[in-house]
Amino acid sequence: MKCKKCECEKHYWLKAKKQWQCSSREFRTCLRSGTTFQHSKLALRKWYLAMALMSMTKKGLSAKEMQKQLGHKRYATIWQMMHTIRTAMGNRESLYQLKGMIEFDEAYVKKSTSADITLKRGKGSQGVQNVGVAAESTPLEDPVSGKESKHCGYFKMKALKGHKAKEIDEMVKENFDESSIVFSDKSASYVNIEDYVETHYVEKSSNQTTVSTLKWVHIAISNLKRWLLGIHHKIKGKYLQAYLDEFCYKLNRRYFGKKLFDRLVLAMAKCYW
């Protein structure tokens, strides 16, 4: 551990204060300092219970149900806590890039809108949010048995601001390894993907493409929409990425079992100074 004031690595423990003290400048660091829990007044017990419930339930929980399970009075506090946990999930996911054979497509997710807005259908509708979805076709190794799974690898999802190629290019640069091979349909927004990866194959969108070339992407999209509709219903566009981070974090660790909670604790306890 480094002191965030002088970067000294030598500390000693103050038992009475339950803090670490730097031997150089006597700067004190509490156990929560630098972690996601740093400025929270909630007891760590409630944080750990919330992380356990979010990681061990396959379908997830709404903030209202979480409030009920924790016996907390204020809904807003629980809602904010869950979003803080989702932010930690997203930070952990951002450390990795997809590689190998990658399927890529877009999804349109319903979002909450003002009652006085007249919604049009299809692309560009104010009632939906555009989401870029990518999946590794390369099978993922089961961490329990050590054998190669018959299913696909990791997923990435990003809430996009629009439908232009610029949005797609940014997602590809951030999340795809340069040596990757990408498969997609012939959308006009995908014209620059080949500039950021080794190879980009395109196929005309059809029922056959959905069930073969882009199989795992569309399975993920279907599961995402069912999850959002069943638990969270409609959500505001500015919060959509947080929900996508939670969905992908759990989906990418679907073989971890009980170890998923331990991984989430590490993600929350990571120091960012």
Explain what the structure shows:
- By secondary structure, the protein is α/β, with parallel strands linked by helices.
- It has three domains: 1-31, no CATH class; 44-93; 101-235, Nucleotidyltransferase, domain 5, CATH 3.30.420.10.
- Helix content is 36%, strand content 16%.
- The protein contains eight helices and eight strands.
- The protein has helices at 44-56, 63-70, 75-93, 165-175, 207-211, 215-232, 240-252, 259-269, and strands spanning 11-14, 19-22, 28-30, 101-110, 128-136, 155-159, 181-185, 199-203.
- The strands form two sheets. A five-stranded mixed beta sheet has the order 6-5-4-7-8, with helices on both faces. A three-stranded antiparallel beta sheet has the order 1-2-3, with no helix packed on it.
- The longest helix is centred in the N-terminal third of the chain and has 19 residues, at 75-93.
- The radius of gyration is 21 Å and the shape is globular.
- Mean pLDDT is 84; it is low at 115-119.
